Structures are given as structure tokens and as C-alpha cells.
């Protein structure tokens, strides 16, 4: 997030795209609802009529995967009607002419055909957005989990720059992170192209710096593989040893059948987890790990705030902290690492190596956490990024993008679009929430959510079993009929092994980020 | 400037007497007042005496005016508070030691309460109850000699929250928490003529209302009328310690208090005023903590042998992995290894794993599920 949750309550207007916040980020949603109750305005762009829509003055139920067309259409109107922030664009941004040329090709009438949103509504949305300043834009996986995910993200930034909402309190582009520590895992370098602190592995200065600090030579200089490439490697033998730490890939990756084939082809898999999962079935070695609240450490939330995690109980049996396990392997391969606690790792390594985290030390985050960038120990942390139009690389650059349809669209055999997400009472594959007293009682099984229109047309009643089928697999689950879902859509989650949406999802990926298209594939629906 | 108990205090326009007193560390007791919500004045405990005003004033909703002279603990104020507390105590099954008058009365009262309660012990809020705390402070006891018959049974049909109208003092904090803080709009004041009570949905149970079990109302309830089912009887506050931590679920990163007894988490509440959540939690953050105590936790390393996983020692398992990885690197180079880190675990773990891959194995084949 470029901005902070604390700004929600002061914001004048929100544009929420592809984010079912009341279920996926419930507490963030409460601050947004508070603001709306106090008079802030809200526009929701989402195929589903989720709970937040009750609070919105305008809901644009666009067709799944048409985000870029819609955003380009809105920008078309902003430019045509001269409503954009000319001062901000001319002083803080470059590439406006290219953007103008691109969105010229997206008149509302044309966008209406792609997105299913009427031209007049698109104009109205553009005018409302231009009438309030600043507007805070929030998005979640509804934007990223597409084959055009990266372009989607760039287009949200284009829109916010055009509206002059970047680098402002209560403005900005704010992705809410799905998992608690996605931000932190990125910050700490669990990515194939960067060291901790986003320092490129291809940069020889960065490599020198890390070589010196880690006491090694010859750090690898090419970018590594991303998960889908690793999975391919398991089958073609390029990847022989696969180390899976805490992820239940067999349920979370698209097309479970394919994933299981890949995992079962692997020569040697190490899993490190707190439970046996569908994935540990494929492991050759399993390490038992300490869980949340069984060791000290830090999480970094979506607003870049590094907060403490503390020990409340001991891990069961012989389970050990993850960092300890990694250290032991290093030691057996001839590397003796000094740090011997999470605090030592953070204070003496991470915060020394990642410039943006330099000022964050355990003794400063005993109570509330600090938000990076926080370059030195007197720095108060940063709530709003790019203040005063200062982007990381100087000026904000417009990146005009074209709309591309999802990799798989409905046809005669598979006439419905399947979209996926999370539900309130569970989390991911339920390895945690499924073992909490009461949560299973609140939500005990997966359902296929369908619209009342489709249910009526197909004679399906509430809790009837239906078969949902894609080119990759099929599941048989109960139908949940809800006006939240538009006609032509089936909506499911991936919390349960039975009826997991990932038996159906399409392993098509964004060409750059390799994010899978969880939000769109084609399915057939049948009453059983 | 206004004067509180003889002390001059500066104020900003729009501040209430309670705001100013709190800022100046003058303690005024409150029950129904819930920070960041509209004051209702329901309980009447925060009264103060303002010179020149014939009636006592509610400090939570009276705006300061220049020149006001306020007494927060005058005899009149104290006597009024005692009356309020006594009425509250007498209004329901407040069967802690303060709920009734003398010894005999207490015994009878206990027996009555037990027979119309499903609780085995005293009120589950004992030790954490604002009413009990204030009653001790003001030396007030209830007027009970026997308990009134229970009109509405305990609401037990949901897995998280027990509602007990027999201990409700109608302060309305839960209503403010649900409607103004979390904006879930599941509960409200119901008034069917002669009887006032808090209703869920269309006066049914939480289970059939719009309740999403965030538990904000439980955290707000000052007495034993709303309690966590999972923590029932497990907790007496003097036996627990509070540990601050960060929620393990979504990317909001809410700050939690873990209430820990004998090394075990028995309840979770939000850290009031903590950033970013200001005390709020959702159902997962508040009730999703006990997975760590599951019997199914992995307790020892496992090694596959004859196509089955068997228990192993750390040395065995670590040696095996190190040897195998070393051999693979030797045969096919470091890029024949790849790893996926965990977006749920702590920063230090992700750092350590990428360090292992980069500096020991010498490959950048390290990624995590950033994208789900
Ligand atoms: S648990 Fe949350 S939603 Fe349910 S009544 Fe209480 S405050 Fe409202
Ligand atoms: S349930 Fe608790 S918070 Fe709600 S009105 Fe009754 S006593 Fe007050
Ligand atoms: S309490 Fe709920 S909203 Fe807060 S971090 Fe946890 S899961 Fe997210």
C-alpha cells in the first residue's frame, strides 16, 4: 500500500476494485465503513455484489476480467472532458501523450460492450471520481489474479496519477495483501530476482554487498525460477530437489490434478510445516515447525508496518523454529551462521542489509510497529509513499496498457465463468482455521455460489448438489443461491479439499509475474 | 479553560468534560461510554457536579464551556453513583460476592442463580467486570435475597458467543460496537413496550442475524452478559498474563492480546489504541487461535521409507537433506534446487530461507506464494 489504514477514517472517497474487503480484510473494511457512515463516498468495481456494495453510491458489476477496458474507458472520459488533474500530470508525471493515445481507443460505448457497464454509467463514474480529491484506491486479488494482472495493477496506478491522487494522504494505490506476511516475505527477499530490500540479484554492487555481509563469494547473478517454472522443472527433471516451506501447494495452485502430477514426479521434496497437508503426502522429508505464537519474530502488514510477533506457548514435541531449521542445514553444508534468534536475525542482518528497514529495530517496535521506509533509528517511519509527487524513480511514469481477455472464456460447452476467492470464516486451505473450535461450525463445507436467475433457469434449489466441470476436472458440491453473484458466474473458494475450486481453475499465468488466473476460467454447471 | 476539582484545564472546542478529565488524568468512572462512538448516557455513572447547575451532568456528553467549575467526586456525585450501581446489581444475576447483601442472603441468591444458569461456577466475568470493580470501589452491594427467575434462556446456539440477558445492564456498548465500530448491524436496542432488551436480527439469535462473530460486542461488554464460549471457565484474569502479538491471518496485521494461562492461549482480544486496528479484530483474529494446540500437529521430523513416512530424529533428517542437496548440486549444479517460502511465517524465516538458497546453495530459485 502506498498509504495506511489509519487514513481510511479521514478519506473523502474510496474506489474499491476487486476486493471483497468485508470477508478478506474485515478490520480494514470496518474503517472504510466508518468513513462512509461519516460521509465519505464509495464506488465499488466488482463482478459480485458483495457486502461493501451496501455502502456504495455506485456499483459497477463489470464482467470478469474486463478491468483494464473499464479503467481505460474512465480515463478516456477524464481526458475527453478535461476532468483530469492537469497540474499534477504536467509536474509529476511523464508519458501522458502515450496514455492519451492509448485510452483514445476506449470510448465508453466500446467499453460498454466489453465490460457490460453502460456507457453513461462509465461517464458518471469518471465524473464522480474527478469531483473529489483525493480518492483512495484499494484493490486485492481481483486485480492481480489474472493473466493481465500486472497490467491491471499498472492501470490502477495510471488512473490515480491521472486523477492526481498519488503521493497524497487518503489517496494512493492500495493493494490489501491476502496473507498476513506477503509483504514481509517480499521485503525479505523470498523472490527469485531480489535480495532483501528489493536489491536486484543482477546488480553486481548488490551482490558484493551481500557477499561481504554473508561471508561468501560468487552469489548467483541470474534471476531464479518462479513457482510455476519450478513446478514444470519437477516434471522435466530440471528441478531435482524441492523445498516447500509452509505452503500447501497441492490445494492452492490452479489445476490440482496437474499440480499433483508435478509433485509426484519430483525426485526429492522437503516439506516444512506445522501439520501434515495434502502436499506433505509427496514429501521425502518433513520437518516439524514451530507455529505462530510459538516463536518470536515480526510480520509486515499491507501498509508496510513491521510489528512484533511473540511467544506464548512452546512448540509441540520436537518442533523447531523455522529459522533454526534453515540454520542447521546451512551448518551441515559448511556455513556457520552467527545469528541465533529472530531478534538477532532482524537487528543484525535484515535491518542492516535492507536500507528501507534500517531504522527498524526490535527495541523500537515493542508496542506499535513502524512503517518502512524507515532509513535510520531516528526516523518515525512513513505512512504515505511518494509524498509531494516524488516517486522512487523521480517522476511517475504512465504505463498505458491494452485490455486482453482472460485466457479461457465461456463457450458453448463451458458456458459459465468460474471466479474464486476467500470466505470470512476460513483461511486458505484451512490447515489452521479448520482446526479451530467453532469455525467449522460457522462454515462447514464448500459451496458453488450461483445467481438466483441461473438457479431458476436450471431448476436448482438451495443446497441441491451440482456438478461444476471445467476442462481440467470436476467437483460435486452444494449450490448456494445468492444475489451476490451475477448471472453467468459460479463463485467458489479453495478452503476445502472436497469441492476445492482449484480442481477446476486454469493454470494460465500472467506472462511477467506468473500469477495464475484464479479469477476466471470457463465451467459447465449441471444439476445432479 | 475550565476547572476540574480545583485544577485549571485547557480545552479544545468540542471536547467533553470526560475528554478533558481523561487527558488530565482525573478519573471519572464510566460504563456505557465507548471510545470513538456516540455517547449515549445510558448508564449515568459518569455524572459530575457543575457549579450553578441544579442537576448533575453526564460528563461523557456535556461539552466544556469556558469558566465551568466541575467537581467529579462531590458527595452528591458519589451518592448518585452508588444508587446507579445498586440498581444495576439488583437488576440481574450478578452472583459474584457483591451481588447480594449479607451472608445468608448470598447463599440463597447463589443457589437461585445456579438453578437458573447453566454455569457451574460464579459469573464468568468475575474479575473482569466493570460493574464488580466499581461496586467494590464505591462499597455497594446488591439488594438481592433471592434471584429473579430467568426470563430468557442463555443463548448457546452459536459456537463463539454466549448471550446472557440475565446479566445485561442495558448499557448499549455492544450495540455501539456492532453498529458504530464494526458496522455489522447485527444487534440493536429492542423495545417492545414494557421491556427493553438487546435484540439480534429480528429478535432471534445471533446465529440467524447478520452477525459475523467478530466478537467486538464481547470485548465491549462490561459485565458477564456476553462472553466467549471457548474461554468459558478457563479464565480468571488474575491467573493469566497478557502477551501482545500480531494476527496470523490477513494482511491487515491486527494487534492482539493473547491471554495466556499456564503456557496456553485461552482468549484473544484486540489491543485498544494499537495500530493499525485500534482494538478491533475479526472472527479469525479473535477466535482462530487454537489450531496450534491441535493433536494433529507435527511433532517429529519424518523420513520417507518404503513409501511411508516414518518418525526420525533431527540429526537423521537434517543430515539426509544436506547430503541429498549437496549431491544434487554436485551432479547438476545449484539450479537443480528450488524452494518456496511461506507468506504466513515471520520475516526472519523468509530471510533465512532465501539466505540458505542464495549463499549456501548458490541459486536464486526462491519464491513464495505472493500471488494467492
Ligand atoms: S459478534 Fe460482531 S457482528 Fe456479531 S453482534 Fe457482536 S459485534 Fe455484532
Ligand atoms: S450485553 Fe453487555 S454491552 Fe450489551 S447492553 Fe448488555 S451489558 Fe451492555
Ligand atoms: S483480525 Fe481479522 S482483519 Fe485483523 S489481521 Fe487478523 S484476519 Fe485480518
Automatic annotation (TrEMBL), chain A:
One of its GO terms (biological process) is respiratory electron transport chain. Residues 1-331 form the Molybdopterin oxidoreductase domain. Coiled coil: none annotated. Transmembrane segments: none annotated. It comes from the Bacteria. GO terms for molecular function: iron-sulfur cluster binding; metal ion binding; molybdopterin cofactor binding; NADH dehydrogenase activity. Residues 416-522 form the Molybdopterin dinucleotide-binding domain. The keyword Iron applies. CDD domains: MopB_CT_Formate-Dh_H. One of its GO terms (cellular component) is membrane. Keywords: Iron, Iron-sulfur, Metal-binding, Oxidoreductase. PANTHER family: FORMATE DEHYDROGENASE H (PTHR43105:SF14), RESPIRATORY NITRATE REDUCTASE (PTHR43105). This is Formate dehydrogenase major subunit. It comes from Desulfocicer vacuolatum DSM 3385.
TrEMBL record, chain B:
The keyword Nucleotidyltransferase does not apply. GO terms for cellular component: membrane. InterPro entries: 2Fe-2S_ferredoxin-like_sf, 2Fe-2S_ferredoxin-type, 4Fe4S_Fe-S-bd, 4Fe4S_Fe_S_CS, Mopterin_OxRdtase, Mopterin_OxRdtase_4Fe-4S_dom, NADH_UbQ_OxRdtase_Gsu_4Fe4S-bd, Prok_molybdopt-oxidoreductase. Residues 1-76 form the 2Fe-2S ferredoxin-type domain. GO terms for biological process: respiratory electron transport chain. Keywords: 4Fe-4S, Iron, Iron-sulfur, Metal-binding, Oxidoreductase, Repeat. GO terms for molecular function: 4 iron, 4 sulfur cluster binding; metal ion binding; NADH dehydrogenase activity. It holds the Pfam family Molybdop_Fe4S4. Residues 240-296 form the 4Fe-4S Mo/W bis-MGD-type domain. Signal peptide: none annotated. Residues 159-192, 202-231 form the 4Fe-4S ferredoxin-type domain. This is Formate dehydrogenase major subunit. It comes from Desulfocicer vacuolatum DSM 3385.
Amino acid at each position: 500500500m502506498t498509504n495506511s489504514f489509519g487514513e481510511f477514517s479521514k478519506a473523502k472517497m474510496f474506489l474499491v476494485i476487486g476486493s471483497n474487503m468485508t470477508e478478506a480484510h474485515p478490520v480494514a473494511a470496518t474503517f472504510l465503513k466508518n468513513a462512509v457512515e461519516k460521509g465519505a463516498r464509495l464506488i465499488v468495481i466488482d463482478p459480485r455484489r458483495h457486502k461493501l456494495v451496501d455502502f456504495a453510491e455506485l456499483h459497477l458489476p463489470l464482467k470478469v476480467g474486463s478491468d483494464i477496458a473499464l479503467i481505460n474507458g474512465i480515463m478516456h472520459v477524464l481526458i475527453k472532458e478535461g476532468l483530469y488533474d492537469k497540474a499534477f500530470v504536467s509536474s509529476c508525471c511523464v508519458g501522458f501523450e502515450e496514455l492519451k493515445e492509448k485510452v483514445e481507443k476506449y470510448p465508453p460505448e466500446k467499453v460498454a460492450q466489453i465490460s457490460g457497464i453502460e456507457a453513461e454509467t462509465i461517464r458518471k463514474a469518471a465524473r464522480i471520481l474527478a469531483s473529489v480529491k483525493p480518492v483512495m484506491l484499494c484493490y486485492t486479488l481481483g486485480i492481480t489474479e489474472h493473466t493481465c494482472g500486472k497490467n491491471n495493477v499498472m492501470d490502477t496506478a495510471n488512473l490515480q496519477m491521472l486523477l492526481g491522487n498519488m503521493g497524497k494522504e487518503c489517496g494512493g494505490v492500495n493493494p490489501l495483501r491476502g496473507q498476513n506476511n506477503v509483504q514481509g516475505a517480499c521485503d525479505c527477499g523470498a523472490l527469485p530476482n531480489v535480495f532483501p530490500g528489493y536489491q536486484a540479484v543482477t546488480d553486481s554492487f548488490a551482490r558484493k554487498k551481500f557477499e561481504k555481509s554473508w561471508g561468501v563469494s560468487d552469489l548467483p547473478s541470474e534471476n531464479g525460477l518462479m513457482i510455476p517454472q519450478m513446478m514444470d522443472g519437477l516434471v522435466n527433471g530440471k528441478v531435482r530437489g524441492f523445498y516447500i516451506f509452509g505452503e500447501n501447494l497441492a490445494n492452492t495452485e490452479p489445476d490440482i490434478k496437474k499440480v499433483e502430477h508435478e509433485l509426484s514426479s519430483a525426485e526429492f521434496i522437503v516439506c516444512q510445516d506445522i501439520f501434515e497437508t495434502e502436499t506433505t503426502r509427496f514429501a521425502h522429508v518433513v520437518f516439524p515447525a514451530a507455529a505462530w505464537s510459538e516463536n518470536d519474530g515480526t510480520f509486515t502488514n499491507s501498509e508496510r508496518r513491521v510489528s512484533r510477533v511473540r511467544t506464548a506457548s512452546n512448540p509441540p514435541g520436537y518442533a523447531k523454529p523455522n529459522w533454526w531449521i534453515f540454520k542447521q542445514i546451512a551448518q551441515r553444508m559448511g556455513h556457520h551462521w552467527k545469528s541465533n534468534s529472530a531478534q538477532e536475525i532482524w537487528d543484525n542482518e535484515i535491518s542492516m542489509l535492507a536500507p528501507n528497514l534500517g531504522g527498524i529495530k526490535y527495541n523500537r517496535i515493542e508496542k506499535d510497529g513502524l512503517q518502512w521506509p524507515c532509513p535510520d533509528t531516528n526516523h518515525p517511519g512513513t505512512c504515505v509513499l511518494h509524498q509531494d509527487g516524488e516517486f522512487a524513480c523521480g517522476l511517475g511514469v504512465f504505463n498505458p496498457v491494452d485490455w486482453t481477455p482472460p485466457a479461457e472464456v465461456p463457450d458453448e460447452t463451458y458456458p459459465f465463468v468460474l471466479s474464486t476467492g476467500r470466505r470470512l470464516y476460513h483461511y486458505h486451505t484451512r490447515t489452521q482455521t479448520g482446526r479451530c473450535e467453532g469455525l467449522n461450525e460457522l462454515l462447514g463445507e464448500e459451496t458453488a455460489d450461483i445467481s438466483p436467475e441461473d438457479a431458476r433457469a436450471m431448476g436448482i434449489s438451495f443446497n441441491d448438489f451440482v456438478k461444476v466441470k471445467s476442462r481440467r476436472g470436476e467437483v460435486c458440491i452444494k449450490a448456494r443461491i445468492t444475489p451476490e453473484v451475477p448471472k453467468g458466474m459460479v463463485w467458489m473458494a479453495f478452503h476445502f479439499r472436497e469441492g476445492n475450486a482449484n480442481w477446476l481453475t486454469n493454470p494460465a499465468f500472467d506472462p511477467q509475474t506468473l500469477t495464475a488466473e484464479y479469477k476466471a476460467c470457463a465451467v459447465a454447471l449441471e444439476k445432479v | 479553560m475550565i476547572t476540574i476539582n480545583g485544577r485549571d484545564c485547557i480545552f479544545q472546542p468540542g471536547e467533553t468534560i470526560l475528554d478533558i478529565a481523561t487527558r488530565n488524568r482525573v478519573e471519572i468512572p464510566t460504563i456505557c461510554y465507548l471510545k470513538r462512538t456516540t455517547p449515549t448516557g445510558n448508564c449515568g455513572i459518569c455524572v459530575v457536579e457543575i457549579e450553578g447547575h441544579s442537576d448533575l451532568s453526564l460528563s461523557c456528553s456535556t461539552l466544556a464551556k469556558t469558566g465551568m467549575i466541575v467537581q467529579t467526586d462531590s458527595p452528591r456525585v458519589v451518592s448518585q453513583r452508588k444508587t446507579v450501581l445498586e440498581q444495576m446489581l439488583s437488576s440481574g444475576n450478578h452472583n459474584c460476592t457483591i451481588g447480594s447483601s449479607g451472608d445468608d442472603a448470598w447463599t440463597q441468591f447463589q443457589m437461585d442463580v445456579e438453578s437458573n444458569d447453566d454455569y457451574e461456577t460464579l459469573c464468568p466475568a468475575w474479575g473482569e467486570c466493570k460493574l464488580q470493580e466499581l461496586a467494590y470501589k464505591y462499597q455497594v452491594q446488591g439488594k438481592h435475597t433471592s434471584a429473579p427467575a430467568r426470563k430468557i434462556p442463555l443463548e448457546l446456539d452459536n459456537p463463539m458467543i454466549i448471550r446472557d440477558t440475565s446479566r445485561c445492564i442495558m448499557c448499549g456498548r455492544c450495540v455501539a460496537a456492532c453498529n458504530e465500530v464494526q458496522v455489522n448491524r447485527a444487534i440493536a436496542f429492542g423495545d417492545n413496550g414494557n421491556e427493553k432488551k438487546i435484540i439480534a436480527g429480528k429478535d432471534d439469535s445471533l446465529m440467524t442475524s447478520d452477525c459475523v462473530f467478530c466478537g467486538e460486542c464481547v470485548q465491549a461488554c462490561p459485565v458477564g452478559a456476553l462472553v466467549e464460549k471457548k474461554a468459558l471457565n478457563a479464565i480468571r484474569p488474575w491467573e493469566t498474563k497478557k502477551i501482545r502479538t500480531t494476527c496470523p491471518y490477513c494482511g491487515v496485521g491486527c494487534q492482539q492480546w493473547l491471554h495466556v494461562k499456564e503456557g496456553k492461549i485461552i482468549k484473544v482480544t484486540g489491543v485498544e489504541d494499537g495500530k493499525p486496528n485500534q482494538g478491533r479484530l475479526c472472527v479469525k483474529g479473535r477466535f482462530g487461535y487454537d489450531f496450534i494446540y491441535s493433536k494433529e500437529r507435527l511433532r517429529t521430523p519424518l523420513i520417507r521409507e518404503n513409501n511411508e513416512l516414518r518418525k526420525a530424529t533431527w540429526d537423521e533428517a537434517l543430515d539426509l537433506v544436506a547430503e541429498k542437496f549437496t549431491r544434487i548440486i554436485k551432479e547438476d549444479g545449484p539450479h537443480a534446487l528450488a524452494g518456496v517460502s511461506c507468506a504466513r511465517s515471520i520475516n526472519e524465516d523468509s530471510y533465512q530461507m532465501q539466505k540458505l538458497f542464495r549463499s549456501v546453495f548458490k541459486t536464486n530459485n526462491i519464491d513464495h506464494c505472493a500471488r494467492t
